[in-house]
Amino acid sequence: MRRIYEPQDLIEAEMLIGMLASEGIAVHLSGRHLVGALGELPLGGLLGLLVEDAEALRAQALIAAYNAAQPLAADEPDSIPGSLLC
Fold it and tell me: Pfam families, from UniProt (predicted)?
C-alpha cells in the first residue's frame, strides 16, 4: 500500500474515502485513532489515505481533481448569496 494523501481532518478524510470508494478504489485511513491525542502529538501527518500501489496514480489524480473543483454558479441560491442549501 502507498500513502497518497494527508487529509487535514477526519471530515475531509471521510469525504475523500467516499469519493474514492465510488470510483472503485479501496482506501485505508491511517491515524484515525490518533486524532483524539492532538494535545499530545504533533498536528501534522497523523492522518493518511493509503491505497494499493496499482491504484495510487489514479487515486491521486481523482483527489487533485476533487480539490480543484469549483461550485457551479447555478448552485448558489439568489436569495442567500454565499450559502448552499442542502
Answer: DUF2007 (PF09413)
pTM of this structure:
0.72
**Correct CATH for 2-69 of 2.40.50, 3.40.50, 2.30.40, 3.30.70:** 3.30.70
Whole-angstrom CA distances from 9 to 14, 80, 83 are: 9, 28, 22
pLDDT in tens, 22-37: 999 999 998 776 665 5
Q: Which of 70, 66, 69, 61 is nearest to 16 (CA)?
A: 66
Distance CA 28, CA 55 (A): 12
The H or E element that residue 14 is part of is: helix 10-22
